[in-house]
Amino acid sequence: MATVSVFDMKGKEVDKLELSDAIFNVEVNENLVHKAVKTQLANKRQGTQKAKTRSEVRGGGRKPWRQKGTGHARQGSIRAPQWTGGGVVFAPVPRDYSIKMNKKERRLALKSVLTSTVQENKFIVIDDLSLSEIKTKEMKAVLDALNVNKALLVLENNEDKNVVLSARNIADVRTTMADTLSVYDILKYNTIVTTKSAVQKIEEVYA
After folding, report:
1. Sign of the CA dihedral 5, 8, 11, 12?
2. Are residues 60 and 76 in the same domain?
3. What is the rounded average pLDDT of the residues 122-141?
4. Which of 106, 154, 176, 198 lies at 20 to 30 Å from 129 by C-alpha?
5. Which of 137, 133, 116, 140 is nearest to 192 (CA)?
6. Do the Cβ atoms of 174 and 150 come closer than 8 Å?
7. 39/61 Cα distance (integer angstroms)
């Protein structure tokens, strides 16, 4: 069973925490992790890009000049792709880029990246994270005390608005809830900073 240190908001180690092997000590499946990232990025695409083909561009119905005898190359329409203002060859059309991924595969991919994070000592647990007021400076001081940058801040829920709003203006810091973790977010940030209550929530949701 993996064990991590628990720190206070000043960066001092105050306890140890045993992590569930079912979540934080599984065999890492890189193929599923890659598939999960590809799926999430594809599902973000709007798929609304559109350009007109030569049949959709207005005008160009008349042959610009006669077939022979002008010295020009033969042309059939001023809306052909080689003309300025003409149509686009193989023009993009609106489409759905979304990819489906099985629930079990998504869950195993998430467990794989959580396991990797723990193994690489990039999983930091705080005993409690609370601020009396919305103060970006105080949130920055907590992260500096933990010696982290580009961090994913995982909270049990979004009830503590002071923490969420205080971290919002810090570059390379993102807050998320324990029950809405994504593989892409975990891989994007160097370190996961979470609370003991959020760890329990993760173990409950993804067990």
Report:
1. negative
2. yes
3. 90
4. 106
5. 116
6. no
7. 44
